Structure formats: C-alpha cells, structure tokens
Amino acid sequence: MLPDPIKEEIQQAYKQILSSKSLRPRYGQRLMIAEIARALSVIESEEATENASDEDGGVGAGPVCVIEAGTGTGKTLAYILGILPLAKHLGKKVVLATATVALQEQVTLRDLPDIAKHSGLSFSYTLAKGRGRYLCLSRLDQILQGNDSENAMLALFGEDVAQLSTQTPDDRALYETMLDKISRGEWHGDRDDWDGVLRDSDWAPVTVEAGQCSGQKCSNYSRCFFYQAREQVQKVDCVVANHDLVLVDLALGGGAILPAPEDTIYIFDEAHHLPAKTNQHFSSSTRLRATIQWLETSAKTVARLAADTVLNDNGVIAREQAEIKPLFRQLAEQLGSTLLLLEPMLQADAQRDANKGARSSHGRAESGEAMTFELGVVPSELREQAVQLASRFYRLTRGLKEICVVLRRQMEEADSLPGRQHAEQWFPLLGSMASRSEAGEKLWHAFASQDVADQAPSARWLSQLEQGDAHDIVLSCSPVLAAQTLTEHLWQRCAGAVLTSATLSALEKFDVLAMRAGLPERTVYHRISSPFDYANAATLIVPRLGCDPSDSRAHTAAIIALLPQLLDKREASLMLFSSRRQMQDVLEGLDDEWRRIILCQDDYQKAQLITFHRKRIDQGEPSVIFGLASFAEGVDLPGKYCEHVLIAKIPFAVPNDPIEATLAQWLEQQGRNPFMTLSVPEAAFRLVQASGRLLRSETDTGRITLFDERVISKFYGKSILASLPPFSRDIFPERLQLPASA
Asked: Residue ranges of the Helicase ATP-binding domain (predicted)?
C-alpha cells in the first residue's frame, strides 16, 4: 500500500505542474501515475532490504510493471511522478534508460529541468554515458608530446599506434584546441558537448575502451572526465542512461558504472528495444583471417614489450611472454585449420539452389547470406576445434592479464619516471589485446558449449565478409531470447522496474514481449489508450492491388501505378518500405515529375533528410520521404510535416535472420506455430508503429495507405487490422483503379 505522505506528495506535485503551466489534467497520464505508484508500493525500504534473506525470494527481486501508453499520454511526467517520490522515501536510486543518447539528452536538458521547476519536488539528476563519450587526457597528452615521443611510441607499439604518427596539421590543431578549452575550463571532455562536429576518425585517438584504461593507476586519474562523471552518478537521485549503458553495467556484474541493481528502480522507456539490445550485448563474433593477422602482430608486440629494459620489472614480463609465446603460433595454426574446415561449407552453401530451410548432412539450415546451424547445433568437427580454441584463448587471456597486472604495479611502484611512463604507454595496448583475446575465448566457448535442453538455444552461424579483393569468414553466436540473461542479471536483482513505450503489445497482448524479455510471473501489465480521436482524425486506405506482395514484380508495378493517384503535392508524405530493392524499384519506376520531389533514404543521412523535408514544407514546396524500417519509429513529423503515411506491405520480419530463424525452429520443436506465435504478432506490432508516424498531436489529421490486401483476405490479416488504432476505413475504394497494363 502506498504510504499516505507519498500519495499526497505525488498528487500535490501533479496539481502544481498543471497550475504552473496552465495545463489540463489528462486521464491517461493520471492513470499511468497511479498504476506505477501502486505496482511499486510493495518495494521494501533500503533498511528492510539489507536485512532480507535469500530465502525470502532473493534480495532485490522487486516488482515489474509494464505500461503501454499511447502517443499523447505524457509518459515522462507520469513515470517521474509515479516513481521518484517513492524511490526517495525508500532510499532507492532511479535509473531512467532510453534507447538512444539523443533521447537521453532530451530528458536531461528539457524534461527533468521542467519537472523540477514546476512540480515543487526536490531531486537531483545527471546524465550518464559510456567511457567512449569522454576524452582520455593521457591519450591527448601522448598525441601532443611531439614527434620524438610519437616516434618512440611507434617503435614500441608498431602499427597499433600508427594513427598517432600520421597526424595532419589540422588534426594537431584540433587536439591543441581541445587542450586549450580544457585548460580554460570551457570544455569537460564530453564528445556531445564539443562545439562542432567530431568525426569518428578524429575522436578515436583520444578515447579508450575499458580494457585500455588503467584507472586509479593513471597519472591523470584525479582529473579524468569519465571518473568525475561516474562519481556524480553515485550521488544523485536519478541517473539518465541509455539501454546500452545499463546492459554494459549488468554485464560487468551491476554497480560497476551505475548504482547497484538491488538499490535501483529502473525505468526503461522505449522498452520494446530492450530484448534485442540485450541479445546484442551478450552475443559474440570473430573474424578468422583478421584474428590470425592480429595474433601474428600481437606476438611481435609482446616480444618488444619483454625486451623493453626501461621498465625494470626484474624479468617478470619476459617470463610471462615466454609462457604465452607458443600460444600465438598454436592459435594461428589452428584457426588456419578451422578456415579449411569452414570454407567448403560456405562454398557449398553458396552454390546450393534448394529452398530456404533445406537440411543438409551437416544438420544445418540455409539462411540467405548467412549459413545458420539448425537449432544452433554445430557439426562435431567444428565443436572439437572450438573446444581447443576456447582453452588456448583462455590461457592467452590469462597471460595477457598477468602482464597487465605487472604494468599496473610498475605505474605505481617503478623507481624511475621513465619506467612509470613506459608502463603507462604500454598498458592501453596490452589491455586492448587482453580484451580481444577474452572476446575470442567467449566466442569459441559458445561454439564448444551445448545448449540446455529445456531452454531456448543460442543461434550460431557463419557468414562471409567482403572487403575489396579480400574476404573473411565470420563466426557469430547470440541468444535467441533475452529471457535468461535479463532474469539472471536484472529481474532477480533489481529493486523494481517499469517498462513503457507507446507500443509494447502485439495483437493486444503482451505475450511476445514477455517471452523475449523473460518477464517474471509477478509482472503487472496495463494498456493506456491515446487521447487522440483516431476515427475522426485519420483514414486507413487499403487499395485493391490484385496481387500478393510475395509477387514482388506485380506488387511493385501496382504501387508505381497507384502512387500518382494517391499522392497529393499539397501534402507532406512518408512512404515506408520493408525492402530496399523495392524502394529503389518504385523510385525508378516513377516519372521525373515525382522523382524530383522525393527524398530517398539512400541519398541522405536520416537527420539531413528530415531537415531538407521540413525546409521544403516550410517554403510551401511539395516533399515526399521514401524510407525503410528506421523511419517507421522515432521519427517525429507533426502537423503539416506529415499528412499521409504510405506503407508498402505488412512489415513481416526478414525470414533469413539467423536469430529469428533459430527461434522459429525452436518454437516449432516445442509444438508451437512460429508464424502465429511470432511472425504475425510482431508484424502487427511494427504496423502499429509505422502508422503511428501520422498522428503526433491531438490536432493532427491525415491518411494512411497500406498496399497489402492480406489484411482483408487472409485469416491472420483480420487480427492485424483489428490491432490498429480505430481509424476510419476506406477499403478497396473504387476511385483508385489500376491501369490495364499494371
């Protein structure tokens, strides 16, 4: 039960915001606040949590609340008011995770300051970012030390730091400007705060990954921008992060970057991204030829390190180098043998013209450009290779980490300044090598392991990477469901969690999300409708095409024939495609008159394209956007900037994705229909998202056109149609006629 003082604080804050900003109360927003507060009210206080025993269900295994809140609900205000007062009362931290850095900044720079200003609530907050968003002072110092130092580093590190020795005068001027701004206190090393555009090639030399950072042993530790930001994270009431940073923290055990899960209530905005992002973070891959080259280079690098007399480490590094020296050669030779094993498999796969899903004697399924092993089961000869490779990479990783320990000790205890400086220069390179070796160990362990019988398997597949005349073989492994990962690292540990988005359900159910994310049985679910008057604001048009989208040639011809009848140059339009090839074919099939006003995703960066589109509309010019899946969500074109959304077809997932193919095989093995269990609900989900590009405010109006008769003719189409918002419908309008030649 929510304590009365907390209830009163929430109610008073909401009333004060409405009064201060002259706003009307929204029913959906008030309902969302109430449901969140009620769901989380069972969280125990910090003191009670500390005294809880594992027998009580696990420390930190708090309530989970899923809320689908339609566009216009006002989600940010709702979850902040529903959570923050309660969290402060319980002594818990709040981690608010969005899907992107851009939305992080919107929440931090606009939403939270506005709530703090008008609500009367007193709370602190900060924006948390990964290490890669901050400049490394040690790296900047090394770059600016001068040619002598650069040459010395090149002699030490070889090609690994060649980028530092190929600076142009403009590069050096940029880095000197960075140092100058830091010295004057005008910049604090955050890439996103730099006044101007920083290319990746400019930024990469002055930042480090976790394995390259020497932490407290670094001479610049006390001034380090990343660690200063991290210290602030532990002090505030609310930390704004993104999904990726939360997952990185969980992979490190939790509490490494962000507050510990047991002390945290998580808010996942745009929560539909969480399962896929989790799979990405806990997946692994390796490139065979590139790894062989890396092993050869690394062996030489470690030999140079062992010969560095300035370090004066009493020969410890030399002894470690002697132990791991054979491993570089053994691993390179064994990877060469693995290449000989895998190349014939891929060549045979490329030549085979059988239908997708055909089985071979290797027990695998063909899957387009990737060769996906059926149910994740790899051939025995490949598993045998993987067992040996995993073992050797483990020993190599352990040896490289031992050298890193010695270098850390040298940074602190070396008798001479040159010795400390050499150790500090060597450490990032050896740390990076240890991280890459550990990643190799993870991949080969994944290929050597057998999946647990009663759980969803991991997807394992091979693919080819073409780069100019050279090509490489890539091995990849990924969970097909995030359920086990999130259960172990998050749901069983967190104090509580709220998952929200405008679209979370599929076919009006949360089954797919619950399956993919492994949501616990105690999870509570709510669907809050949008305040928009869909029936009067928008019309769904389904023209008669006389063909199925599976007949791509006829379907494309029908779209080309109907577009001039449907598009109105006085309206801003957005056309969404599931296939790049079809998008290009439709564009090429239209007259020059139409092509001149179309902005195609292939021709511009996303932000640039949207800017051009808005500029055209502001100048009274016609504009039509042609885009793919990335334009079907997260694109905000309110009012006059989008009055017609056109969707080429029901957005079913690409059938040759290795992860989805393996999941479908497993569902079939469980006696379930993958098409009805997975494909149809997720297609409905994506169609709702795509149609959601039209109405962005209560005053917006317009049309949605779907070039897919299956929503009328197929048994599953009717359920997809029913899951859409209640637009008025115009099915097979007689005014839209295909030419006889179409």
From this structure: 15-315
